[in-house]
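Form 7-S
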Amino acid sequence: MNPTGLFLIIFVGAPLLELYVLIEVGSQIGASWTILLSILTAALGGWLVRTQGFSVAFRAQQQMQQGTLPALELMEGTTLLIVGFALLLPGFITDVIGFLLLIPTIRRHAILRILQQRGILRPGTTRAQASQQSHYIEGEFRREDTRP
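Output:
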C-alpha cells in the first residue's frame, strides 16, 4: 500500500469509523453512559499501561545488567507508548486494539511477527541465538602502520 493510502486510512478512515461506533453505542446506551464508558476505558488503560511500562522497564534494566541488549523490551516499551496513546483517544475500536495489546503474549507475538515480516528476525531464531549473532561482525581489515 502506498503512503498516501495508508495516511488516508489512518487519519481519515479510522476517526470516521470510531465516530460511527460511538454514535451507534450512544444510541443504544445513551450519550452520558457512552462518555462515562469512554472515560473509564481511558483511565483503566492508562493505569494498565503505566503498570506494564514499569514491568518492561525493570526487565530491560535486568537485561542491561546481564550485558545483553534489551531489544524486545525496547520494542515492548514503544508498543506500550502507542497503546497508551490509543487508549486515551475517545473511541471503542482503538480501546479494543489497545486492551488486546496490553496482554503480554499477544503484544510479544505481534512484535515478533512484524520483525519476521520485515526480515529483521528469522523464523525459528531464539532470543539467545539472536543476541549471540549480534556479537559478530563479518568483514575484512587491513593494518596500515603510519609510523616511520
